[in-house]
Amino acid sequence: MKVGIVVPYSWSYWGGVVEHAEEQAAALRELGMETKLIIGHDPPGRLSRLLHPRAGRVDVPPGYVLPVGRSVITPANHSLANIVLSPSAVPRIARLVARERFDLLHVHEPLTPAIGVAALAYADSPVVATFHASGRSRWRKLGVLSWGFLLDRLDVRIAVSEPARETANGYSPGDYRVIPNGVRLPEHVQPDSRADNVLFIGRHEARKGLATLLRAWPRIRAETGARLRVIGADPLAVRLLLARTRIDEDGVDLLGFLPAERLDAELASAKLLVAPSLRSESFGMVITRAFASATPVVASDIEGYRDVVTDETGVLVPPGEAEALADAAVGLLTEESRREQLAVAARLRVELEYDWRRIAGRLAATYAEAGVRALDPEPVTTEHALPTPFESDVRTCEIVRRVR
What we know:
Layout: E1 2-10, H1 16-30, E2 34-40, H2 46-51, E3 65-67, E4 72-76, E5 79-83, H3 89-100, E6 104-108, H4 115-122, E7 127-131, H5 140-147, E8 156-159, H6 162-171, E9 176-178, E10 197-201, H7 210-224, E11 227-231, H8 235-245, E12 252-256, H9 260-269, E13 272-275, H10 285-292, E14 297-300, E15 314-317, H11 322-334, H12 336-353, H13 356-369, H14 389-392, H15 394-403
Parallel strand pairs: 1-2, 1-6, 2-3, 6-7, 7-8, 8-9, 10-11, 10-13, 11-12, 13-14, 14-15
Antiparallel strand pairs: 4-5
Helix pairs in contact: 1-13, 3-4, 7-11, 10-12, 12-15
């Protein structure tokens, strides 16, 4: 089976949907499917530096990536997205669809021009779509009025969470399957023997709540001696924020964008992830990625996060309240046995619910609903037993027994 995975953003710049699509492609390949990623690409050079304020990936896209044009920064969902709006992308997608002869197209954010809309217009196979966004969007009404009729071409609709389903159903009513974002499971991670590091992972955008965390940081630093590792946000922008709010940079490491291997290493060695977003989060991929590394989370009590973070895996705090955030972070950093207990439960939660092997099996079953025979024999589903390498580790089993 050959699946075309369509993403309206740029492969060159890190983001949740891009990461999701790459991991989806890899997980489906492990099930025996051929996958191609149709997406934007901004090669390194002067033009990309002019169009984009932050640095992107400088390596060459892998062979399964089919670039269809450059992106531009566009305000969307209280964020700045790298969306391909070039008209030249439309004929490129038409040619790709005709040449590649996909058995199925899986389109992410199908209402987004130009890639998502063009894929719907030229699809000559069954189409599955995943809706990621939640909350209000000023441009969505225009999109529905202009090309919303193309959503009638969808054979199956997926939402990554209940908030995302409610948002999508509001402008495109239909039957939605809720299939969450998946996560890779690093092997042999240990919940104990961690460095006194607290991580923030995200772009420097107001809705991500970094300013709230920085207001809480002096107290967290003073009471625990921990270091804050800021990943994903532009270091210069964070320094300007620190200067504007007159917060000391003591104990703050600004790492910028990190490739997947280094990000995994940071998560596996940190004691805590803080996700202080204020709004407009449909799921929280950084949270499940932390859980996969047995790293508990302090997160804002907002839609999209509260379905992922439970009392057994982390602490939810009111959004925007720095003192409450500091209370939760200091509590976990100074109570090691409780922190380890949350870490073990967090890892087991993702093994049972968010492992990409399970999610890929659910997608394969969904493709069958769309009229495409995905695999023979039957793919892995959530009902099948999967190995849990985390619990097979001897030291981890000792901790599991202790905290249970």
